[in-house]
Amino acid sequence: MMTKRNSLLSLLAVASLALLGPAAQAQSEGYPAKKPVSLVVGYAAGGSVDLVARTVAPELAKRLGQQVIVENAAGAGGTLGALKVVNAPADGYTLLLGSTSEVGINALTAKKPRYNALTDLAPVGMIGNQPLVLVGTSKFANAAAFREHVAARPGKLSYASSGIGTPLHLAGELVKRDGQLFMLHIPYRGAAPMVTDLLGGQVDFAVFVLSSALPHIQEGRMQAIGVTTAKRSPAAPNIPALAETKAFAGVDIGVWFGLFAPAKTPAPIQAQLQKELREVLRQPEVIAKLQAAGVTLTPDLDGRKFVRSEIDRFAKIVEFAKIETE
Q: Are residues 237 and 164 in the same domain?
């Protein structure tokens, strides 16, 4: 039999639960009427992450009925931009256009990680992915011939990437691991010096974002050995995937993009942003612009499951290559 005291406690518990609904609703009521939304990019203007952000932002603004301002907070491989969002109020007014490095890789390679993407960020929605491509200046019939050439010269050949711990670096190490190859890694700061040194013969191979290398491939200055995603890219269907060659069947890595919010952002705001982002990614102009940059749209991915699985995959590559950053 319920005592008067237990009955009172039960009534209080019910009342408390009833109050939670309006409180949560009040947090998101009118969003985003207060002020413009800041869409943070952890890189300088002009790169692939910035391009995706500036493609999505105007259409997202139309649907939200509020300005969406792209804010470049470059530094530490995207970490500074991610930290800006992690430490921002969880009210939906500061969002991250996040990518592979700052969401998936940086915490795995840093000596002292400054945040945990799985617990400090909420994946509002995935946008798409862009393949990488392994290139050289020598002519190989296919990826199998490339592997045979490198295997016969252990430690004598090199490949370039855009820096230690970047997706391009991990792609190169994945090629080495699966192909059982020994190549020296030469880190660069950006695509331009990589192009110069590859064409000048200072490095033997390089991993680029496909959109950066494609003009040089089309003009015959570089040879594409293969894209690093499991399937060929619609942007360059004539370039084979490395995974089409048995030795590289497990090579599947690229650069992906998504919209992230501080982890404690109210669920109604996250749901609204997810809904509007999906609509943005259905707009013909947005689709055309992103596809022209080599981005394959992935709005139906479960962001949380996807990011977790990617981090698990990256951890194995980082462990194999013993990659460490400051």
A: yes
